[in-house]
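Entry 0007
Protein: Flagellar protein FliL
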Amino acid sequence: MTDKAKAKGGKRKILIPVLIILTLAALGVAGYAVWQLMHGDATDKAAEVKKAEPPPAPVFFALDTFTVNLINPDNDPDRVLYVGFTLRLPDEETRRRLNDYLPEVRSRLLLLLSRQNASALANEQGKQELVKQIKEVLAPPLVPGQPSQVVTDVLFTAFILR
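Output (structure tokens):
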């Protein structure tokens, strides 16, 4: 054998194991990438399913409109508030309880509305304060032994101040 043939054979002996190691490394990286994609997709799909679930339907409790005379500094008896609103509640149980004790609920609200000042209700801040007061007046239990009511929001459906 010539020196050239010996050099060629020696290079092949080193080249073949290096190529095998490189091939195995490339297959390992590719396998790891596929594994990550499969597990990452499963996690993403689970997150998408959670995101895709619609929020629970809101629970509303519509009340008949109220008409009350208002307090005003000039003692004008014609200052009247005509207001209608709907209560947003956290659950069906609260709605059922408010409906069962509707006369008590309406009485509390009428007493609250009749104490309002006409000039205060004429602006946005006064209306927001009224919403806060409605939530507070409805919060205590309607009868002893019952849980407190939670009103998450008060939505005006009619508001006429004259």
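Curator remark: The chain has two domains: 1-53, 59-161. Residues 104 and 142 are 7 Å apart (CA to CA).
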